[in-house]
Specification:
By secondary structure, this protein is an alpha/beta fold. The protein has twelve helices and twelve strands.
Length: about 350
């Protein structure tokens, strides 16, 4: 079978020049050189057919693996513009969707690790499909934290990564945060430029740890945390409460692990007494763990794979991979960690 012909390359590729940094492994070896993490805030289908199409076609011209994880409507527009070249795009990554943010992050990390191990140069296009919903703003805040911590989560892979945001779907405040967390932006000609307003990961995560949910008047579970010897029993009771509120048995088993790690951290790093509560919202089971004592580092913890050989803790890392959403609130007198697990 013959391969489909490539679409007409963008002008930069025809001229032997690239609008994007060199993503080759050699270029990536020097302090992240070659890595592009850019936001493209688009206004119309025309923007997709020009700015974004150029990004994809340049990857095809370079014979890179081009991966697009985008909603169906965006895929339809880009696929139509690419013509036969659409067959050369990998549309999606196994296990990667935005219905469970923790699992999505792990699926993407696993895929990119495999690409790097295989020495395969990759070009990535993503666009979340998060809707409003009862937890919409909070889930989007959690997603933006993952984007801000991209280097910590996925490592410096040295590949071009373009993140799409439809100007009509998000508030000006959200779009301002989108710009802050991306080292590069596309200008009004669709060219990547260095973002002078980019903030570093720790600064952004420290300023955007939540928001935690309002605890309802009646909750399914309410336990005091006073003795670490009770950890096993508390974890069991929390699991039973999550199962009773609608989580599947398999999801409960995993959720119990995540909650157990956070409760253990409350015992080890907090000041007793602590508290664990659980309740159900329309589309998720919520578990909230409160502990006394300061915890300013909690908001920026758990985004980097732990170095177990060096004795690094894995509690929040595990929790962030298992839960859909993790929100944190730190105060002078205590810390709150909230875990959200989506219902089937």
């Amino acid at each position: 079978m013959t391969s489909p012909p490539l679409p007409e390359p963008p002008p930069s590729a025809r001229a032997g020049q690239s609008a994007y940094p060199d993503p080759s492994p050699g270029a990536a070896a020097s302090a992240g050189a070659g890595a592009l993490h850019a936001a493209a805030i688009y206004n119309s289908e025309r923007d997709l057919r020009t700015w974004i199409l150029s990004f994809l076609m340049e990857g095809l011209t370079r014979r890179e693996k081009v991966v697009a994880i985008v909603p169906p409507r965006t895929a339809e527009i880009l696929g139509s513009a690419l013509g036969s070249g659409a067959m050369m795009i990998q549309w999606g990554v196994p296990g990667m969707d935005y219905q469970h943010l923790g699992r999505a992050s792990e699926a993407l990390r696993t895929f990119l690790d495999a690409q790097r191990a295989a020495g395969e140069t990759t070009r990535l296009l993503t666009e979340n499909d998060l809707d409003g919903g009862s937890r919409g703003p909070g889930r989007l805040a959690s997603y933006l934290r993952s984007e801000a911590a991209a280097d910590e989560l996925y490592g410096t892979h040295g590949f071009p990564w373009l993140c799409l945001y439809d100007q009509h779907r998000f508030t000006p405040g959200i779009l301002a945060d989108v710009e802050r967390i991306h080292p590069h932006l596309l200008d009004d000609k669709g060219q990547p430029v260095l973002n002078q307003d980019h903030v570093d990961t720790v600064t952004y995560l420290s300023a955007h740890p939540g928001p935690v949910s309002v605890v309802p008047p009646t909750v399914r579970l309410d336990l005091d945390l006073t003795d670490i010897d009770d950890l096993g029993d508390i974890r069991r009771q929390t699991g039973e409460a999550m199962l009773a509120q609608g989580l599947s048995a398999a999801d409960t088993q995993l959720a119990e692990v995540a909650v157990g790690e956070v409760i253990a951290n409350a015992f080890r790093h907090g000041v007793p007494p602590g508290r664990v509560r659980s309740w159900r919202e329309a589309d998720a089971v919520i578990v909230r763990v409160d502990s006394a004592g300061p915890g300013p580092a909690v908001a920026v913890s758990g985004f980097r794979p732990p170095d177990l050989a060096a004795g690094s803790g894995a509690g929040l890392w595990v929790a962030r991979q298992i839960a859909d959403v993790v929100h944190v609130e730190t105060r002078r007198d205590g810390t709150t960690v909230e875990l959200q697990f989506p219902l089937p």
